[in-house]
Fold each of these.
Amino acid sequence: MGPPQDDGESDAEPSVSAEIARVAFKPPPLWRNNVELWFSQIESQFLISGISQEETKFHHVVPVLEEDILSYVSDLVRCKPNDNPYTQLKNRLITQLADS
């Protein structure tokens, strides 16, 4: 008797690979006159898009900030905080723009 023949079928469990899809999402420019409402709107879009990580939210907001707005948060952008970067960015912008 020779070696067993491979009939292409296997008793092994099929491998399942998880796939993560990216959702195209770009927030509108920041609304200077109503920054809290702007954050409410994009947080709704984050929810619909399945975006829940602080770092991902942070990196979606930073590119839509104009130069004069970036000056309020330049330290956070240059050296992203390890803890709650989006929340820190959001709170700073709300505080700074509410006073202006």
Amino acid sequence: MLSAWRKQKRSGRKPPHYIIVKSPKGEKAIALNPAVALAAGSALLVFSVGYFAATGYLLMRDDMLAKTALQEAELRRSYEDEITKLRGRIETLNSKQQMAQHRASLRLESLESIRNHQSTLEQRQQKLLEVLALAQDTGLQIASFTTNPKPLPKPSLAQRQVISVAENGLPDSVGGETVPLENPGHLLGLRPTSTTIPAPGPKTSPPETNPKGLGDLSALEWEIRGQIDQGKAVLASVLAFAQRDLEALKSVADTLEVDVPTAEKVAMGGPYEPLPLSDFNTYVIKTEQALSLRHRLLTDLQALPLAAPLGQAPITSDFGARMDPFLNKPAMHTGVDFKALRGTPIKAPGSGKVTFAGYRGGYGKSVEITHDNGLTTRFAHMHKLHVKKGDRISTGDVLGEVGNTGRSTGPHLHYETRINDTPRDPMRFIRAGRKLTAILGRS
């Protein structure tokens, strides 16, 4: 093979390419075709490039994947942060909306409560005025009631600013203390007495703070509640004064020996049980009952002959046993003698009907009046008579004049009070009348 190559070279022809392989057994030449060699070289080059490219890719893939994963993670975190911010904004908006709805709900509830309290106030004020009118009609003197609360206009969101908002967006807190009625009696024009009247009940005061979002709406509600409580206190005062008068009038009736029907209906005594101020209707009922009973009892007492026929004239002879001024012997004096000048007017101690007017033995010129409940009064030793039998007279009417007719030692009035024609001490009735006058005067 080698000799052939040399021969071709000497001949001038371009010999083929050979690869000479040496080994212990000798040399071996392998002929190479240029085309084949070029193809093989190209293949080797392509393989090498591919090999190194694949090797480089495999070496750099992890770094690329790690970098890509990092970029994706950063992008994901960015998206998540944006989503979190958006959720926070949504929650903030929802929270503000819920707070606004809650405040609106509170305002509506408070407004409804105010309207209910306003309606209650108007109804109770009307009832209170009726009770006060009844108190005046039945004689419980009320000189003035200048602090009578006038009904407030019904609240309306369109008529007033319901809530004021500060710069920080939070509602201003508006409120104030309601003034408790320490002594409601002075509102009725009642003069103070030594009578102790129990306090009408616990004071009502607004809460320490107003609920957020209510503002002056809450203050208005407490203002209305304060007026309601003031009305309760005034009503409690009227009831207390009526019950005080009832007890005093019954004590007057108990001193007399006359049956006063209304006095038997006045139940007094027992343990003290304060009436809850919250029960306004019960207060109204009890007050109306007390005023009505007071009026009937007062009417019954005023129908009795309780006035003194000669006012403050001095007494010269009391009722009961005495020495007869003519016989100088013990005798029963069936009346009371009042000293007065001849011609002094004699006034009727109570209303009634004249059943006798004329001359009657030792009584001289006299008048007899028949009253209710079996009561009669006699007026003796008169100088002149100004009434006649059958006349209807009223308390204070002039019956005649003081004189010295009949069995008399000088000008004076002999005054008798009889129950079912039995003589009774006239001073018991006169003292009861003075006590009644004092009761009416303090009212």
Amino acid sequence: MRWLLVLIIIAKLLAAQGYRNSSVLLRGVREQIKSQTNQALKQEEARYKDSTDGPSLEEREEYYKALTESLYLQRRAGLIETLFAWWSDVLRTTNGVERRNLPNAGKEIGVLAKRFGTVEILQRMRCLEELRDHLNRNIQEALAIEVAFLAIFRD
């Protein structure tokens, strides 16, 4: 039940920040990007299929693969930074500071601020820093995220 609450809070947080696909943090983002780049590739294939003047279709396919990965990494980093902003707001609220990075998530942030102390919040933010470091290394993404979320969203 606690995980459901956490997912609802994250979904609201991401929706408040303009992320349209907020059901599953990263899988949905990757699929959305793949769909967009595959559609663009198909349009180029149709345009240059019978032409000898256009760029090589293999080159364009490689381009769109690289674009997909680049956009995914950019959005993943944005999601991690949004979680940092969220926990920063929880920390500020806990310490009575009025400034907010995510004003649309004020209610959820207030609930967490009442629940956790400064030390606990800082420990969770440290777990986010470790997640960011792990994702920048050659560590399996799903495992790094699972371990981090178990530490960040524990009771």
Amino acid sequence: MMKIRLQELESLLPSKKKNKKKQKDDTSIEKNVDVNAVMKEVKHIKDNLSSLEIDWEFDQRKANELYLKKLELAAEEKRKIQEEEIKARKESEQEKPKDSCDVLNDDVEDDEGDLFGGLMGEEEEPTYGTEDANQLNAATSWTIIELSVPQSWKGQYPKDVLADYCKRNSLGKQTYKTTEHGFNTWRSALKIAQDKHPNEPLCFELPEGLATNSRKNAENLIAAYTLFSLDPNTSIYKAIPTVYKDLWLGWLNEKQLKEEGPRIKMDKQRFTFITDLVNNSFIKLNHDDIVSLTYYVMCLDFNLYPSPLTTG
């Protein structure tokens, strides 16, 4: 898919930020990648995308849905390959004889754990994000969202936008609880203090099974989801990277379908009832009665007051 290819190419381009660390990274990128060729292909893909979006048959909503599905499939495939590499590496390490120093160190650590484990109390966990990681790992089919952002991005991330939003709307500190549920499988939960109601914080968790591949991405993902939950119809999402914009539009589409679903179902039931009523009447009534009944039912369907109908 062109958008995925565009995202991969943009990540190869050197950053335009002026700092020493970035300049070193950019130098290594330029040595390994033909920057001119990459920029040429990026321009070609952007031109193609622009021409597609101008086409009157182009459906932005369907394109976003397809893009998200492709991202999920690509991330899942990448995660499986990495897990296989880690597994193979661990198996090769287990075959090597363990050094005696390592064995002694392990024994010392175990003794220290027995001596001080009961004395060193852990800090109490917050009440938000109470899901059991082991239970999730065993029972959940993960959907890993790929959230790579081009190095050239200079705008705000969802965490930054959320912090500004909280300041403007009398909301307090944001506290993230981020957990790893497996290799490259991260989730985050969020608690926001309310200045007007200190004892009633707002708590947010991602939908079940949704995760990403790093701690930073997990926190930005829950920040974007929180912004959507607080104000889904705001245009604030336009200030965040494209990959988060696409997620936002997908969530908005799901929300609209859920809200319109009951109305559509009632309309279908009503239409079916009227159709069955007319069909049954055709069997029982003569021609004049059928004309009168059809007229009456049509008036009911369009909320009109039927007037006497004469036939013949």
